[in-house]
Amino acid sequence: MKKDLPENIVEDVAIAVVLEKESPEVKDWNVYLVNLKNEPIETVLVSSRGYGLKDGKEVKTSTLRHSIGNVDSREYALIEAIDEQVFGLTNEYWLSYYIGETIYDKKFIFLPESIVESNIIRIPVVNKPGVMIK
């Protein structure tokens, strides 16, 4: 039963939407997995999708699955590029990984319009501006 499963809490791992380059015409954004732990995480998998209302219509993006592999301690890995047009949607990233033989998973959700100038910080490890969920 579900109640018999151990509660494996995800800590010190984040998903960040990072501003890579900016010009007057366009901003380039990428999504990263940031391992803030002092140990590597292994067999990292991330699925991503977007959903919500755009111009009064229900919109869903494709679900993408990313096999990241291993991410060393205090390192980061690129998940995907992201277009500013989907910032008005809910953007969901479902992360799973192993430490030893223990599996961990967590859903990270960027709510509509949460990727805005007022929420931008300097992302640790990546050392670029962006919005991060831990």
TrEMBL record:
Name of this chain's protein: Uncharacterized protein
